[in-house]
Amino acid sequence: MSDLNSFLVNGEKRINLKDCPTKPQDGIDKQKTIEKTQRNLQRMGEFQDKLYSEGKEGLVIIFQAMDAAGKDSTIKHVMKGLNPQGIDVYSFKQPSVEEDAHGFLWRCANKFPARGKMAIFNRSYYEEVLVVRVHKLYENAKIPDRCKKGNVFERKFEDIKNFEKYQYNNGYRIIKFFLNVSKEEQKIRFLERIDLKIKNWKFSASDVRERGYWDEYMHAYEDAINATASKHNPWYIIPADKKWYARYLVSQAVVDVFKKIAPQYPTLSEEAQKNLLKDKKILLNEK
After folding, report:
1. DSSP H helix total and E strand total for the chain
2. Nearest Cα to 131, choosing from 42, 206, 188, 55?
3. Burial of 78 per CB tally in 10 Å (0-12, 13-18, 19+)
4. Distances, alpha carbon 26 to alpha carbons 101, 177, 240, in Å
5. What is the mean pLDDT of the chain?
6. Of residues 250, 260, 241, the one with CA closest to residue 80
7. Cα–Cα distance between 79 and 43 in angstroms, integer?
8. In the predicted model, is pLDDT for residue 277 greater than 80?
């Protein structure tokens, strides 16, 4: 089994996406990997229960990827063992008029969970340094001209890093996944969406148009990951050509961050424990 740390980016060194694999190494057993994923899902459920009851830290999991990389299915399969009461899932598409009238972090900052809960972001504020950068959407944005000059995206990277540091200092962990699908595998998945009627709804002509900007997106992702990865808010570049393998790595990374949080069930005071015994006695003496 490949070491999860080989997919971790924590800011200690720059990465080149061309050097990052999109599929598992030869010799990795699919069935054993799926079994490990199932064990991880069980552990995630146990950790989540403690996180919720303790109420001290919050966890935000961000998924970013090219179209058809498997964000939706990964979220569906890896998070299915969690209690819905303790987790919220948000999909960030094109900003609304209200969202566009605020700073780019605003719409996601509003969705951070209460401490003790989890949130999953399907895309996120990182779209501001990805699609906005690739298509130069900032040039027509309703913002002051001074915000469109100079190192626009260097400033945005700094904003993101400071925002994530602020969240960490206020009791939140953020882990970020880039599902690294190959261009060849994306093509296969697009064709499947066209050929299979039950998947037609997933396909959009815009998917093919965006594919034409593949190199520009890879450059944008690489810069964003290198600029915002940190020890406490790392990125994981997950090989995504094989969904069973991507799901395992994501589940293992979530388990690892839970281990760092180390949530515990609250311990009652001696007085509260005495009151519990009194209540128990009342219940047992009921007729």
Report:
1. 11, 6
2. 206
3. buried
4. 49, 23, 15
5. 95
6. 250
7. 11
8. yes
**Structure-block tokens of residue 175:** 């882990």
Of 16, 8, 85, 28, the C-alpha closest to 244 is 28
Q: Rounded to the nearest 5°, which phi and psi values hold at 120?
A: -115, 130
| pLDDT tens, position by position, 24-65 | 999 999 999 999 999 999 999 999 999 999 999 999 999 999
DSSP-derived pairing of the beta strands 235-239 and 8-9 = antiparallel
Contact 47, 251 (CB under 8 A): no
User: Do residues 146 and 203 touch, judged by C-beta distance below 8 A?
Assistant: no
DSSP annotation of 279: H
Query: How far apart, in Å, are the Cα atoms of 260 and each of 55, 56, 191, 254?
Result: 15, 13, 41, 10
Contact indicator for 112, 58 with CB cutoff of 8 Å: yes
- Which residues contact residue 113 at a Cβ distance below 8 angstroms, ignoring those fewer than 6 apart? 58, 59, 60, 87, 88, 119
Percentage above 90 pLDDT, the chain = 86
For the entire predicted model, the pTM comes to 0.93
Q: Which two tokens stand for residue 244?
A: 């069973």
Q: Is residue 47 within 8 Å of 263, Cβ to Cβ?
A: yes
In a 3-state reduction of DSSP, which class is residue 91? strand
Nearest by Cα to 58 from 108, 106, 105, 113: 113
Strands (E) across the chain are located at 8-9, 58-65, 87-91, 118-122, 172-180, 235-239
Q: What percent of the chain has pLDDT over 70?
A: 99
| pLDDT confidence tier of residue 1, bands split at 50, 70 and 90 | very low
d(CA 115, CA 171): 7
